[in-house]
Specification:
By secondary structure, this protein is an alpha+beta fold. It has a domain at 123-282. Helix content is 28%, strand content 33%. The strands form 2 sheets. Strands 3, 4, 5, 6, 8, 9, 10 and 12 form an 8-stranded antiparallel β-sheet that branches. Strands 7-2-1-11 form a 4-stranded antiparallel β-sheet, with no helix packed on it. The longest helix is centred in the middle third of the chain and has 46 residues, at 72-117. The termini are far apart.
Length: 283
């Protein structure tokens, strides 16, 4: 006897799966909510401002490019500040460069003058010394001295010396000034030796007891030390055109005399020359 075959239901196609029961319920609930629930107020546009409030809208190009009128001057000053700083920096560098250039040019010029003329300080010495009115016993003295000074410019072949007026020559003993006088003004040519005489006078000169004893002992030994100081303003002359500024020359000579009355024999113990302000080749 043959078996009966019953037909079976075919399985669903894999390309179109059926939604599960839970998802179908959720979709139906969402559709029902959309139909009945009103939209959120934000979907209709921005909320209305409260009463008394104003909203001003300014174009974007005006906000970025056109500053307010009260800030225009500040904006201009801030915009020009880098330019001013660059100009100031350039001016400072230019001034510094000009000063440096002038200093280098002056140094080169002075060096060239020194190499060409080779200036040297003149030498000084005391040629003779005559003393009157220097009595050790008297309480107050008014001595008078005749001093002959020898200025030797033989070391300079191309440099002359102009001795200006208002110079001074003084003679001291143990720190006490005996007499003083003026240095005469004259011009000394290169390779020239000049002997000049000047009269020195002093008033109200007094010595202490210790100085009197020391002076009497040195006079008895025929060796009285004196100091002759000369301070005179001079100018150097290079050739016929070029001259230096006026400087003060100080010459200090140590001498020893054999007597304090009449024509004394002066023995030079050396002279020292200083120049102020600074002339480096004269020190």
């Amino acid at each position: 006897m043959a078996d009966r075959v019953h037909p079976m239901q075919s399985p669903p196609h894999p390309a179109s799966p059926l939604p599960p029961p839970d998802q179908e319920d959720a979709a139906a609930a969402a559709a029902a909510a959309t139909e009945t629930t009103p939209l959120h107020p934000t979907f209709y546009g921005p909320p209305a401002p409260p009463p008394g409030t104003y909203i001003v809208q300014i174009p974007k190009d005006q906000v970025l490019r056109v500053p307010p009128s009260d800030r225009a001057s500040r904006y201009k000053s801030l915009a020009e500040r880098p330019v001013r700083r660059r100009r100031l920096r350039r001016a400072c560098f230019g001034a510094f460069g000009a000063v440096l250039f002038l200093a280098l040019a002056a140094a080169v010029f002075v060096g060239a003058v020194y190499l060409v003329f080779r200036p040297r300080a003149p030498a000084f010495s005391v040629a003779s010394l005559s003393i009157r009115g220097l009595d050790v016993v008297a309480p107050s003295l008014s001595p008078e001295l005749e001093v002959a000074l020898r200025a030797d410019n033989g070391a300079n072949r191309k440099v002359g010396v102009d001795y200006r007026g208002a110079g001074e020559v003084a003679v001291t003993y143990s720190g006490a000034r005996l007499a003083a006088g003026q240095w005469p003004a004259f011009h000394q040519a290169p390779r020239n030796v000049t002997v000049l005489s000047t009269t020195l006078r002093g008033t109200g000169v007094s010595f202490s007891d210790e100085q009197r004893k020391q002076l009497a002992a040195e006079q008895a030994a025929r060796a009285v030390p004196l100091t002759v100081e000369a301070r005179v303003p001079v100018r150097l002359r290079f050739g016929k055109v070029l001259r230096t500024w006026t400087v003060d020359v100080k010459a200090t000579c140590q001498v020893t005399v054999d007597r304090l009355a009449g024509e004394a024999a002066a023995a030079n113990r050396g002279c020292r020359v200083k120049v102020r302000p600074f002339l480096w080749w004269w020190w």
